[in-house]
Amino acid sequence: xxxxxxxxxxxxxxxxxxxxxxxxxxxxxxxxxxxxxxxxxxxxxxxxxxxxxxxxxxxxxxxxxxxxxxxxxxxxxxxxxxxxxxxxxxxxxxxxxxxxxxxxxxxxxxxxxxxxxxxxxxxxxxxxxxxxxxxxxxxxxxxxxxxxxxxxxxxxxxxxxxxxxxxxxxxxxxxxxxxxxxxxxxxxxxxxxxxxxxxxxxxxxxxxxxxxxxxxxxxxxxxxxxxxxxxxxxxxxxxxxxxxxxxxxxxxxxx
Amino acid sequence: xxxxxxxxxxxxxxxxxxxxxxxxxxxxxxxxxxxxxxxxxxxxxxxxxxxxxxxxxxxxxxxxxxxxxxxxxxxxx
Lengths: 255, 77
Hints:
The complex is a heterodimer.
Chain A lengths: L1 H6 L6 E3 L17 H16 L5 E5 L14 E4 L5 H11 L4 E7 H7 L1 H10 L4 E6 L2 E2 L5 E2 L18 H4 L5 H6 L4 E8 L3 H19 L4 E7 L3 H4 L3 H15 L3 E5 L1
Parallel strand pairs in A: 2-3, 2-4, 4-5, 5-9, 8-9
Antiparallel strand pairs in A: 6-7, 8-10
Chain B lengths: L1 E9 L9 H5 L5 E7 L5 E5 L10 H5 L5 E9 L2
Antiparallel strand pairs in B: 1-4, 2-3
C-alpha cells in the first residue's frame, strides 16, 4: 500500500497545489490566521479569471499591511483607512483595470468609516474585501468597533460594556442600505465548505466589477487566535458560537 | 469497484503546525509530527496514509498553502 501511495504523487494525479499568483514567501501571520486562507482564495480567483496582469490591489494598515509580499500583482499602500479613496482614484484613472481593497475591521470600520461609506455611496466600481475579526490584531488585541458585547480585549479587560464602550458596529449591513453597492455578502473561512463559498463570493464580486455594476463588499468573519488568546481550532469554534449569531453569514444584497 | 486513493505532500518548512488541517480531514489522516521544522513548529504529516481520499479539504483550509494533494482512481476487488 505504501508503494501505491508514493506512486500516485505524479503530475497527472495532481488535484490541488498552491497557485502561482501567491509568492513563495513565508507569511508572517500567526499559525492558523484567517488572513492566509483569504490571501490564498483571492490569489486563486485572480489566477482562474486570468487577470493577474490587470489587477491592482490596495493594501491596508493592519496585519495585512505586507500583503504585497504574498500576492504577485501590482499594489498600492494606502494611509490608514484610506484604501477606498485610493482605489476610487485608481479605478477612475485606469477603468480597464480590476481594483480591489483588502481591509481589516480597524481600517475599514474605525478610522476609514468615512472613506468606506462615501466610496460605497458613490457606487465606485471597486471590490472591498473586509476581514472582520472583532479585534485590533496587529497592535496587540485592543477593542475594535466590531468587538462583540461582553468580549474581553486589552482595552476592555472586563468585557465590552455598551453603556460605556458603545455597541458593536454592523458596518456591512449599513453598506448594504446604500444605493451604490451592487453585491454585499458575509462569508467565513473556518471550514473547507466555507472556503469554497468565499471563493465563489469573491469571484462574483470581481465579475460585478467587470460588468460595471458598482461597489461590491465581501466581509469575511475571521479569527484572531493570538488576540483572542485561543488555539486556532478553539478560535474557529469560538467564532461559530459567538461571532456567527451576531454576524450571520449570507448575501445581503445582490443586484 | 473503483475507489479514490489520495496522498498529500506537506511543505514542512512552511508549515506552522496550526492543526487546522488535522480537524478538517474527514478520514483522520493527518496528525502533527513529534519532530519540529527549522522554526520549531511541529509540522503536519500523514499518520494514516491508507485512509486518504484526496478530498483537498486540508489544502483548502491551510493558511500557509503548504499542502499539495494528489488523487487517483484505483480498481479494488
